[in-house]
Design a protein that fits this description.
This protein has one domain: TIM Barrel (Alpha-Beta Barrel), CATH 3.20.20.210. The chain has 15 helices and nine strands.
């Protein structure tokens, strides 16, 4: 299958949206479009979180996780907190992937130490039949937060919006919470695939509408987290995860204002455990960036999907530092950064498009991560990625 066209012929211009300040640091967006950068941009999955004492304090003021996520001023506050500590190249909206099924009426709650839980899991034909794309006004707090964050960023770095993949949402919706064995959702997948496909189609259309509303509100890139795609068997992944992520991407707005002249919005897909299907994802997903977990070899990924220089023919790569390596001493963190930068090799330089790398973790940062180790990581990435470009 021919890869879908997915990148402009030139670097996107800074946004002309009069609501917001011009963008000062476009390193992340340039890398998304496989343009040359002076060093590898870096941001961290779950970069606003419990490893930061200021986040813990703000959450305590909010009273609960959902209290934090549903108040735009507090969601803005915690989104900006990691940028005050570290010279990161992008902000990511503080929210949760489960806001969409919550808006469907499933009753989302978070218990300290237990994670998310739905009051009404979707486990039978009647429950699936009752699902529908939610009224986006029920998610207005998310879109208000996006706009507020963009204003408060004042052009410092781009803002990433996000959503869970249709399959990942289905896992939580059927299980009712996180799971070790995915027994409920896989029972439906194998026993009643018709119900699963119906749920996934609704989820995909809901996620697309949700991400488009984030783009309208000011998100400068959007990311789909297929956090549980890797738990599927080969064949099932293609039918129940990949196909519905593709359905989301096909519906997304390509520019902020919906016109061909508008500022392009790059699309990122991260499938944890999806390394075996990387080539298929590059062929079938209309996205600019593929995220990698720590099990993937960057050199192999670059050769497989990142090297094509034809317009739309390659994908930028994002990842894939093992979050657990952040518990090691700073010298070991530095050595691991150097290894990954060397493994990817010298990124594309000069005009046009070519291989590019966005440095990130292979999954979300742990709440127990020492903050000074994050500083060591960010500094090491800047130093080593600059040095390899000078060779």
């Amino acid at each position: 299958m021919t890869a879908p066209a997915s990148s402009p012929a030139h670097s996107p211009a800074p946004t002309a949206d009069a609501r917001f300040a011009p963008l000062a640091n476009d390193r992340f967006l340039r890398a998304c479009w496989r343009q040359a950068t002076d060093r590898s941009p870096i941001w961290l999955m779950r970069q606003a979180g419990r490893y930061l004492p200021e986040y813990v304090a703000t959450r305590a003021r909010a009273g609960s996780f959902m209290g934090l996520a549903t108040q735009p001023d507090l969601a803005c506050e915690v989104t900006l907190q990691p940028l005050a500590r570290y010279p990161l190249d992008a902000a990511i909206l503080f929210s949760d992937i489960l806001t969409v099924p919550d808006a469907m009426g499933l009753g989302l709650s978070f218990t300290q130490g237990e994670g998310p839980r739905f009051a009404q899991p979707v486990r039978d034909e009647a429950a699936v039949a009752a699902l529908q794309v939610p009224d986006l006004e029920r998610l207005r707090y998310v879109f208000d937060a996006v706009t507020l964050i963009r204003r408060e960023l004042a052009g410092r770095v781009p803002l990433i919006g996000f959503a869970g993949s249709p399959w990942t949402l289905a896992c939580y919706m059927v299980e009712g919470s996180g799971s070790d064995d995915y027994r409920q959702v896989k029972s439906m997948l194998y026993g009643r695939p018709d119900l699963m496909h119906r749920m996934l189609a609704i989820n995909a259309d809901a996620v697309a509408a949700y991400l488009n509303a984030q783009i309208d509100a000011g998100a400068q890139a959007v990311m789909v987290f297929d956090s549980w795609g890797g738990v599927l068997a080969d064949g099932a992944f293609q039918s129940f995860s990949l196909a519905y992520t593709q359905r989301v991407l096909m519906q997304l707005k390509r520019t902020h204002d919906g016109t061909p002249q508008g500022t392009p919005v790059p699309r990122i897909v991260f499938t944890k455990g999806g390394g075996a299907w990387l080539s298929q994802m590059a062929q079938q997903l209309d996205c600019q960036v593929l995220g990698l977990d720590w099990t993937v070899n960057l050199q192999h990924a670059r050769a497989s999907v990142g090297e094509n220089t034809s317009p739309g023919g390659g994908r930028a790569l994002q990842g894939n530092f093992d979050p657990a390596a952040l518990f090691a001493p700073p010298a070991a963190i530095d050595a691991e950064v150097q290894r990954l930068v060397s493994q990817f090799g010298r990124p594309h330089q000069g005009p046009g498009a070519g291989a590019s790398h966005i440095f990130n973790l292979g999954h979300g940062i742990s709440q127990f991560t020492p903050r000074e180790h994050v500083s060591a990581l960010v500094e090491s990435v800047a130093r080593h990625s600059s040095a390899i470009r000078a060779t």
